[in-house]
Specification:
Layout: E1 2-3, H1 4-9, H2 14-23, E2 26-30, E3 33-36, H3 44-54, E4 59-60, H4 62-68, E5 79-82, E6 93-96, E7 105-108, E8 111-114, H5 116-126, H6 129-142, H7 147-155, H8 162-170, H9 184-196, E9 204-209, E10 212-218, E11 223-228, H10 230-233, H11 236-251, E12 255-260, H12 261-266, H13 268-283
Parallel strand pairs: 5-6, 11-12
Antiparallel strand pairs: 1-3, 2-3, 4-5, 7-8, 9-10, 10-11
Helix pairs in contact: 4-5, 5-6, 5-7, 5-8, 7-8
Length: about 290
């Protein structure tokens, strides 16, 4: 991967560059950006080419940075970059003319990329609510949210639409257990428990119990909530593991309560009332404990 300016700096003349393109030694990826030797460029090569196309001072950003930080899936049909004002988008490269403080740039796989804090801020402005929520929850699951850095990004970007989305989040405490979650259903249950079952304290998420892992565990009540989803439980291996886990829990005096994503999302008040009653019965909590509205 090489840019026209780099080739000129190496001593090639414009005619020599054009000649190498005609002979197939150089392959045009973007105007002034070439693949050397073969035209097939994949993965990180496409990101590198996009930065060369956008010019000096550009960084991988927004959706592409979100993918580089493993906050969302990859889509390299268009690479997002932030570049100084005056640079324009071109096929395959979406240029955002925004200011980026040097403290908001890091390197991922050797490619200049906005930090997680700056990436989340920018994603808040371009993604619909649900995809952004998933990216935010993934950052919480990875325990990579730096609220101090996010506040600094927000302070350095007055007037941006992202502020309306990000400000309530950076002022909100991170729920206990979020960092231990491994699925959207587990995140949903942590939020559900914080809202409806707060008086019992937060459950332990993905709690190691002998040879098994309990999705959510109220240790004082010896109650495990098994979050059932078709994705993880409707296969022969999971079926056998679940039965072995149930037997081990029963032998240790732990009750397992299965809970499907459908029930959690469609009838949360019923689930909360039932869980409250079970926790009171097994834990001896407040007799009037019921679900919060």
């Amino acid at each position: 991967m090489i840019g026209r300016g780099q080739l000129l700096a190496l001593g090639l003349r414009p005619g020599g560059i054009d000649d190498r393109v005609a002979r197939g030694a150089l392959h045009v990826l973007h105007r002034g950006v070439y693949a050397v030797g073969h035209p097939r460029v994949l993965g990180l090569g496409l990101d590198h080419a996009a930065l060369l196309a956008a010019g000096p001072g550009s960084v991988r950003a927004v959706r592409s940075a979100g993918a580089a930080h493993d906050l969302r899936g990859w889509s390299r049909s268009v690479i997002d970059v932030i570049a100084p004002r005056g640079r324009r988008s071109r096929p395959g490269v979406h240029v955002f003319n925004l200011h980026v403080d040097p403290s908001e740039v890091t390197a991922v796989d050797g490619i200049p990329t906005t930090t997680i804090a700056r990436t989340l801020f920018d994603l808040a402005e371009v993604l619909p609510a649900e995809p952004f929520k998933r990216a935010w929850e993934e950052a919480m699951r990875q325990d990579v949210i730096d609220l101090r850095a996010l506040r600094a990004v927000a302070a350095g970007n007055p007037g941006r639409r992202a502020l309306g989305v990000v400000r309530p989040l950076i002022d909100m405490p991170v729920l206990p257990g979020i960092a231990e979650t491994r699925s959207a259903l587990e995140v949903d249950f942590v939020e559900f428990a914080a809202h409806h079952l707060a008086r019992f304290g937060p459950p332990k998420i993905n709690f190691a119990f002998g040879d098994f892992v309990l999705d959510a565990y109220y240790e004082a009540a010896r109650l495990a909530v098994e979050l059932d989803s078709r994705e993880f439980h409707l296969n022969p291996v999971s079926f056998e593991t679940d039965r072995a886990k149930q037997a081990a829990c029963l032998a240790a005096g732990v009750v397992i309560l299965p809970l499907t994503s459908r029930r959690l999302r469609r009838e949360p008040l019923v689930v909360a009332d039932q869980l409250s009653r079970i926790l009171v019965a097994r834990w001896g909590g407040p007799a009037d404990a019921r679900c919060a509205d």
